């Protein structure tokens, strides 16, 4: 294997470490939870098992989406397939809501109207403890990677500005899983303490509501990415600075960007060039500007520069400069 290939493989593993860690944890936890639910008859444990299966499926879908998103551009998709990852992220959010939350609430309802007496809860507590440790490890990995990516930005700001959904999706999933484990443990304990197995069903409903809330947040963020979001304002400002340094450009009318993938940006620039500039001089100038922009900002995968008079651009503009 060449050094370049080894470097690419290492980079790919690093990129997916959050998903691989979460997948490994959830598969093991799901089996343990289902075994515990079968032995003890706990509704919240069964719900937690379903939750772990859904999370495992979600990680598989995100890994699949990442692989599909890396396909090169072709005639049918000239800007590449990067935004396919956003589609699968939206599918994951729907699955969390429809399967994870839906099954949890339904199972809790059934356990309330037809309660089953619980057996010795020790198995539940052991499994919940192991699950909490594994989920905590997965959450720590996701949190570490997320903190590295967000830099000095606040939590919510980093989530809103992130263009790479797998990182914050796994973080949300693991956080919801940890809260769900606490709720499940409390449901099992209080059910035995008061001798009412229906409480375990209420705990299952609470877990479902937590998953529904997480799904709504993730769907909202994924929808914005799927529709199309602008690049980071710092990237747009850097483009403007590079253009303003050019004496041949009288004014920059607007800079419009859209993410075509987590690490790729399409930028459309309207600029008023000096009237003394000939067509023969403009062509190599535009090529030089594009080369300079790509060198300074490698994420600019596609650059379109349109010479346009300032007055005409103002009259014809119907969108924000930083759109």
Automatic annotation (TrEMBL):
It is a multi-pass membrane protein. It is found in: Membrane. One of its GO terms (cellular component) is membrane. The chain crosses the membrane at residues 17-36, 85-105, 125-143, 168-190, 202-220. Pfam families: Cation_efflux, ZT_dimer. It comes from the Bacteria. One of its GO terms (biological process) is zinc ion transport. One of its GO terms (molecular function) is monoatomic cation transmembrane transporter activity. Residues 22-226 form the Cation efflux protein transmembrane domain. InterPro entries: Cation_efflux (IPR002524), Cation_efflux_CTD (IPR027470), Cation_efflux_CTD_sf (IPR036837), Cation_efflux_TM (IPR058533), Cation_efflux_TMD_sf (IPR027469), SLC30A9 (IPR040177). Keywords: Membrane, Transmembrane, Transmembrane helix, Transport. Residues 232-308 form the Cation efflux protein cytoplasmic domain. Belongs to the cation diffusion facilitator (CDF) transporter (TC 2.A.4) family. This is Cation diffusion facilitator family transporter. It comes from Sphingomonas yantingensis.
């Amino acid at each position: 294997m060449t050094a370049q290939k080894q470097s690419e493989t290492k980079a790919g593993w690093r990129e997916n470490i959050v998903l691989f860690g979460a997948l490994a944890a959830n598969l093991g936890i799901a089996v343990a939870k289902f075994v515990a639910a079968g032995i003890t008859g706990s509704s919240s444990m069964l719900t937690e098992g379903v939750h772990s299966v859904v999370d495992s499926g979600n990680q598989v879908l995100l890994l699949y989406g990442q692989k599909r998103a890396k396909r090169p551009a072709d005639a049918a998709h000239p800007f590449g397939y990067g935004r396919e990852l956003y589609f699968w992220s939206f599918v994951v959010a729907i699955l969390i809501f429809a399967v994870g939350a839906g099954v949890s609430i339904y199972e809790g309802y059934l356990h309330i109207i037809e309660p089953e007496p619980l057996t010795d809860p020790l198995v539940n507590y052991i499994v919940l403890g192991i699950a909490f440790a594994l989920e905590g490890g997965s959450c720590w990995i996701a949190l570490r990677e997320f903190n590295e990516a967000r830099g000095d930005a606040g939590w919510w700001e980093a989530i809103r500005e992130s263009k790479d959904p797998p990182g914050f999706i796994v973080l949300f999933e693991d956080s919801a899983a940890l809260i769900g484990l606490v709720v499940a443990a409390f449901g099992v304990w209080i059910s035995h303490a008061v001798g009412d197995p229906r409480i375990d069903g209420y705990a299952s409903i609470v877990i479902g509501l937590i998953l529904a809330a997480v799904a709504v947040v993730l769907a909202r963020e994924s929808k914005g990415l799927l529709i199309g979001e602008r690049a980071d304002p710092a990237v747009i400002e850097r483009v403007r600075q590079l253009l303003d340094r050019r004496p041949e450009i009288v004014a920059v009318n607007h800079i419009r960007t859209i993410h075509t993938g987590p690490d790729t940006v399409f930028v459309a620039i309207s600029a008023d060039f000096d009237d003394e500039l000939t067509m023969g001089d403009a062509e190599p100038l535009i090529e030089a500007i594009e080369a300079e922009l790509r060198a300074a900002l490698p994420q600019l995968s596609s650059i379109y520069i349109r010479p346009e008079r300032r007055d005409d651009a103002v009259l014809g503009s119907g969108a924000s400069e930083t759109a």
